[in-house]
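Late entry, evening session. Most of the bench is empty. Finally got around to the prediction I had been postponing all week. Sequence below, unchanged from the version circulated by S.P.
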Amino acid sequence: MEGKQRRLNRIFRADNRTVIVPMDHGVTIGPCKGIENMQTTVNALLKGGADAVLVHKGIAKRVDAGNAGLVVMLSGASNLNPNPNYKVQVCSVQEAVRVGADAVSVHVNLGAQDEDKMLVKLGKVAEECDLFGMPLLAMMYPRGPKITNEHAPDLVAHAARLGAELGADIIKTNYTGDMESFKVVVECCPVPVVIAGGPKAKTAKDTLEMTIDALKAGGSGLSIGRNVFQHESPTAMTKALSAVVHKGVSLEVAQKLLGGTS
């Protein structure tokens, strides 16, 4: 078994699905609610059964991710930047290897002013990942001056396909809002697609329903941050999402796993 597949097996379970919790928000928006103390949050997620956590290299050096897969984010930009949609490379694949990463992630905003530069980085990182046997998760979002709807099915499908075309092993992108259109996104993408959570949802039910529908459409799981680590009980939310992803439980059963939290 080659190294890339071994590492993918630490992120995806035998059912080829995964629950990833990204916590790279400290670079983008600072130490927001839920990630003030990273080890405390990671411990809560591990208790809930998260398959992998996604962090920047500095945090990767300092937290114990237990048996969960470790995904290291290679891209970054703060929301204080006058051009926040331009994600620059802040870590190399080699650095990620040194901190024990099971995968790396690159963020590309299609339609952004500097899309071309981000695509160049994606292509180069994909080549390095193949050299090191490192899985590449590409966060692909339609986001820029021409984009009026970041969840438009044709744009999401384009973003997902582009990421796969340039060498990504996993695509993270927006859910399109309904099963029929998201099924097209998944079917047109030759690698697994996981959904993003986006801004904090109004209720946990909204996140659970979105996840159930995405799975029915052929999605391979989720990579959801704020709607997990900012939940009243990150452990309970992770348990509920894991049960949906890996056990196929109903919305009602998933809500019961939240144990009265909302």
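Two things to note before I forget:
Residues 175 and 210 are 8 Å apart (CA to CA).
The mean pLDDT is 97.
Will write this up properly tomorrow.
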